[in-house]
Amino acid sequence: EVMAAIQATYWPADATLLGLMRNGRVATDRDLDYSIHATFATCAKLLGSLKDEFVKRGAAVKYFKVAMAKVVEQGSGNGGGSGKKIKVGRYAMVRIVRKFGDFDTGPDFNCIYMDDVRGPSFFTHKNVLTVLPKEIFPLRKCLMYNKSVACPGDGYKFLETLAPRYDGCMVYPHCLGDPLYSHRDCLTPHPKQDLATFVESTKLIDQCGYVSLAKHWKEEAKCRQTFVPTCDDKRGLCFVQPFKDR
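^ thats the sequence. predicted structure below, dont judge the formating
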């Protein structure tokens, strides 16, 4: 509803995209991540309009922030420009009071600059302005809780631009547990299920024409031997892949 109100093109990104490509649900993340189409000139205003739209729809917004970045000014058409750095909007963080779990959460929106003369670009987590792989467009569909939403044409290629944030075996969920309760260590756990069921559900998404990680199953088959689930006795959580700080 919010995106329709501001007439924005948007699609899931980061760990939100990863969860949808796995088997159609958000997992292993404490928030929702979206890319939103804009230009260098319009991004800040577009992001700034989000808070009121969420409040209008009854969201208890606890925190809202629009982050800025600096880019070298571009000229029209030929890539020329003044060479000076200008401030542009980068991303918006919306935090909404959560009714369960042990922290508040909400969506993050990261601008895709459609007018970059090199091609559509965005800022990575390391604040590096990066041109999107050509395989991202045209957008395709992802399955999100049994609803179709726009997604990158090749979600895997998008996630690769965020390395090393998403390295290892992306076919597999990072951790298992109760998906209705979030922990700071495990973020949002993936539902407990055997590996065969998980793989088959991923393949089904792919067969129905949605973006999924199924085609990477064979090339990442070595993960079955490489990553063996280990359990954290303290919280009873099973991790398929270790976190960076563990």
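The mean pLDDT is 84.
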